[in-house]
Design brief:
Number of strands of chain A: 0
Bound molecules: adenosine-5'-triphosphate, magnesium ion
Oligomer: heterodimer
Shape of chain A: flat
Number of helices of chain A: 8
Helix content of chain A: over 70%
Largest interface: A-B, 17 and 26 residues
Structural class of chain B: alpha/beta
Radius of gyration of chain A: 21 Å
Order of helices and strands of chain A: HHHHHHHH
Order of helices and strands of chain B: EEEHEEHEHHHEHEHEEHH
CATH superfamily of chain B: P-loop containing nucleotide triphosphate hydrolases
Largest sheet of chain B: 6 strands, mixed
Largest sheet of chain A: none
Structural class of chain A: mainly alpha
CATH class of chain A: Mainly Alpha
CATH superfamily of chain A: MetI-like
Number of strands of chain B: 10
Chain lengths: 219, 257
């Protein structure tokens, strides 16, 4: 039994690896776009422009109020119906995770920028910095410490949430696992492998987040 | 001689609240003007309008003959000519002293590093802080940070320096080292606009005292005549408060409760 279980795992490995590659690439792209979008959101939200803030607020609330799964269905099944545009399921998952992640990261970035003393902005402006220089050299570097730990936590949520992509037909690591279980009935073994897979990706991230938080809040 | 800075019929509102009313003020090149007045009378706002940190609403404000209250004003250009030093220094905490000093010269003015650095070192030496060039702001005392903040502005080679209560956040023993730096600039003939509550310093450094109350300039006069013979009752009351504070015993016998 043990040896046959191990054998099964070895035989299934290439297939599982393919699924894992899907999970990891959706997550990695989602994380990358969430970060870029989140920084953009945070910067826009601290410009003090009322109309911009209103737009960001609506965007944020839409992603807070509506579950990610509903967004996936909406874009994957809704766009073809209403706009005759269809997105491949992989990219649909990346898009939804990115938009959702960017709203979460964006709020973190906004909060971190907001927590800086107002005088930092004024001192930067007073030596003639333009907006890019002000954010790039003065504000964002100083916000980095405060925003990194919670942002890493959002990354782990993005990785875990990526598994919803199964529901629009992405064959990710979980889907592959289910297919193997359907064939072999080795659910304990496969789910154990999936457990370890997610644990070994997400645990180091959340440990790093906690370590950074400890280091930086007591520095 | 024409003025370097000229406010004419200048107004500033915060919402409905008018904080600067019909300000007329001329500052010649090389002049040291000290602005006095009770809290909330608009001193900071006046300085901040001059480098575009606040947007003004009416009248005219010129710098070297150029109107600043026009849509076409390039404030980044203006700010390089108008240095500003704040009450709480606002050094960039993630940068060393030298990085603080070079940010503007390198990124804004696109100057050569060796040239900008030579100037920064000379100015650091002048304020007695050359040995702190690689320190970070958190490693410095308030007085040291404030002197660095002054140097940061000076590194831009401004025509005018604005000082907004730059010693108000300092422990008493550090006030002098900062005021000496400002006095040195005054001696060099730099144009200075200074807001301060240090009356003895104001009297010593100013070419002219501008007294404000409730958003208006009530009085402009030479320091000696202002301090010995103020023209308005308001200024008189203001000065009396300060002489009362100064006449208090240095070590209070009773706790205030
Ligand atoms: N951002 C702002 N929004 C609304 N009102 C403001 C703002 N900044 C200043 N004011 C108001 O404008 C008036 C002038 O403020 P200002 O800071 O220029 O006074 P000040 O003379 O510098 O006072 P202090 O000696 O206390 O520094 C005050 O009544 C103040 O409450
Ligand atoms: Mg003030």
């Amino acid at each position: 039994m043990a040896s046959s279980g191990l054998e099964l795992l070895l035989v299934s490995l290439p297939q599982l690896a393919q699924g894992a590659a899907q999970t990891l690439s959706i997550s990695a792209l989602g994380i990358a776009f969430s970060t870029l979008g989140g920084v953009l959101y945070g910067v826009l939200a601290t410009l003090g422009k009322r109309s911009v803030n209103l737009v960001l607020r609506v965007y944020l609330e839409l992603f807070r109020a509506i579950p990610v799964l509903v967004w996936l269905y909406l874009l994957f099944f809704g766009l073809p119906i209403f706009f005759a545009v269809s997105i491949p399921s992989f990219w649909c998952a990346v898009l939804v995770l990115s938009l959702w992640g960017a709203s979460e990261v964006g709020e973190v970035v906004r909060g971190a920028l907001h927590s800086l003393p107002r005088g930092q902005r004024e001192a930067g402006l007073s030596i003639g910095l333009d907006g890019w220089q002000l954010y790039g050299h003065v504000l964002l570097p100083q916000a980095l410490k405060r925003m990194t730990p919670p942002t890493i936590n959002i990354y782990t949520r993005i990785i875990k949430t990526s598994s919803l992509a199964v529901l629009i037909g992405v064959v990710d690591v979980i889907k592959v696992g289910q297919q193997i279980i359907e064939r072999t009935y080795e659910s304990v073994l496969i789910y154990g492998a999936l457990f370890l897979f997610f644990f070994f990706i997400c645990y180091p991230l959340s440990a790093a987040s906690r370590a950074l938080e400890r280091r930086w809040t007591h520095a | 001689m024409s003025a370097l800075i000229e406010f004419k019929g200048f107004n500033k509102f915060f919402g409905e609240h008018q904080v600067l009313k019909d300000i007329d003020l001329q500052v010649r090149s090389g002049e040291v003007v000290v602005i006095l007045g009770p809290s909330g009378c608009g001193k900071s706002t006046l300085l901040r309008c001059l480098n575009g940190l606040e947007v003004a609403h009416g009248g005219s404000l010129t710098l070297a003959g150029k109107e600043l209250l026009s849509k076409a004003t390039d404030w980044r250009q203006v700010r390089q000519q108008v240095g500003m030093v704040f009450q709480s220094y606002h050094l960039f905490g993630h940068m060393s002293v030298m990085e603080n000093l070079l940010l503007g010269p390198l990124k804004v003015q696109k100057r050569e590093r060796f040239e900008a650095q030579a100037q920064a070192e000379a100015l650091l030496a002048r304020v007695g802080l050359l040995d702190k060039r690689d320190a970070y702001p958190r490693q410095l005392s308030g007085g040291q940070q404030q002197r660095i903040a002054i140097v940061r502005s000076l590194c831009m080679n401004p025509q005018v320096m604005l000082f907004d209560e730059v010693t108000a956040a300092l422990d008493p023993e550090m006030v002098k080292e900062v005021l000496q730096v400002i006095q040195g600039l005054a001696r060099d003939g730099m144009t200075l606009l200074i807001v301060t509550h240090e009356m003895a310093f104001a009297r010593a450094v100013a070419d002219r005292i501008v007294f404000m109350e409730a958003g208006r300039i009530l009085e402009q006069s030479a320091p000696e005549s202002f301090f010995t013979n103020p023209q308005t009752a308001r200024a008189q009351q203001f000065l009396e408060k300060f002489s009362f504070v100064e006449s208090l015993p240095k070590t209070p016998h009773k706790e205030l409760s």
